[in-house]
Amino acid sequence: MNRLVSLEELRGLITRHARPDAGTAIDDVLISRVERSTPSPSMSGTVLALIAQGAKRIALGDRVYEYGAGQYLVTSVDLPVTGHFVDTSPERPALGVGLILRPAAVAELLLEAAPGDLPPVGGGAPSGMAVSDAPAELLDAVVRLLRLLDQPRDRTVLAPLIRREILWRVITGEQGAVVRHLGLADSSLSHVARAVRWIREHYTQSFRVQDLAQLSGMSLSAFYRNFQAVTAMSPIQFQKQIRLQEARLLLATDPHDVTGVSRHVGYDSPSQFSREYRRQFGAPPSQDARRRGSTHDATPALP
Question: Do the strands 63-68 and 94-100 form a parallel or antiparallel pair, or are they unpaired?
Fold first, then answer.
């Protein structure tokens, strides 16, 4: 199928079925229609996100990714990112579709692949995020998946098959190594992901990087190298991003309790918290919370 024709149909399907929570009747499939967007921090999840209209810019550590109509982004680790759609309006909203990537589903396809169907996975961990142009075969599969939103009788049987096809297209595509690592229990990325999960679950606690390296089953030097490759941050910087994102969410509820929030997310010094918060978000905590209260668009958006 022609890519332009697929994108046109995809835009129509997303426009017709988009809802405020970004969910759909198909498991692990999200669609998003965004009329206005400001830079907002969030966790990326492990996801394939494809844009049908508009463009999005995402900052991960010191890296910036931008992708637009007909391009897709994959994330293989749940990462703290800041992103926004570019030049959106009610007349021309950003439209996108996402597929949550499950390690078990990736592993199953890797086991079923015939010898030689996939290139070997390198030893080093790839970046946890990558962008590529979507080939016609991938766009066609995504369109067929969203058509099932209008075909409830066929959805239960066909949706899992088309989801597998989409995953296979990505695994065998330009950014396949990023996704294949997700399904390998002993890959460098899976070891880094173990440390990422620990930091997310214990972000208020201090830690020694040596202990995280041991948890990940790596030497200290290998852990530093692979963690930086995947996340574009050091472990301490990663923890700081999680703390500040969580603080921003808490302050949306109570913008006046800056000291309480700073302690809740693990800061011993409220003044240090305020400095780092301002550096990250461009305004002191209370001011940023008030500003977001009047301008924040709560519509969920894809990574």
Answer: unpaired
- Rounded Cα distance, 150 and 147, in Å: 6
Identify which of 42, 92, 127 has the alpha carbon closest to the alpha carbon of residue 302.
Answer: 42
Secondary element (H or E) of residue 30: strand 29-34
Task: Work out whether the CA dihedral 190, 249, 209, 222 comes out positive or negative.
Answer: positive
3-class SS of residue 83: strand
**What average pLDDT is seen over the chain?**
89
User: Residue 234 contacts by C-beta under 8 Å, 6 or more apart in sequence?
Assistant: 224, 227, 228
| Residues ≥6 apart with Cβ < 8 Å to 158 | 148, 151
User: For 110-136, what is the mean pLDDT?
Assistant: 82
Angle between helices 235-253 and 188-201 (to 10 degrees): 40
Q: Please tell me what DSSP assigns to residue 149.
A: G
**Chain mean position to CA 211:** 26
Q: Which domains does the chain have, with CATH numbers?
A: 3-182 (2.60.120.10), 237-295 (1.10.10)
Note the pLDDT tens digit of each residue in 264-297.
999 999 999 999 999 988 888 988 887 766 544 4
Kindly list the distances between the CA atom of residue 269 and the CA atoms of 116, 250, 266, 285, 301, in Å, as whole numbers in the listed order.
Answer: 56, 17, 9, 14, 33
Do 155 and 137 meet the contact criterion of CB atoms below 8 Å apart? no
Structural element, H or E, at residue 168: helix 152-171
What's the Cα-to-Cα distance from 40 to each of 99, 253, 302, rounded to whole Å? 21, 16, 12
Q: What is the pLDDT of residue 298?
A: 46
Q: Residue 33 corresponds to which amino acid?
A: R
pTM of the entire predicted model: 0.83
Beta partners for 219? none
Decide if 235 contacts 227 (C-beta within 8 A): yes
Q: What are the residues whose beta carbons fall under 8 Å from the beta carbon of 220, sequence distance 6 or more?
A: 209, 210, 213
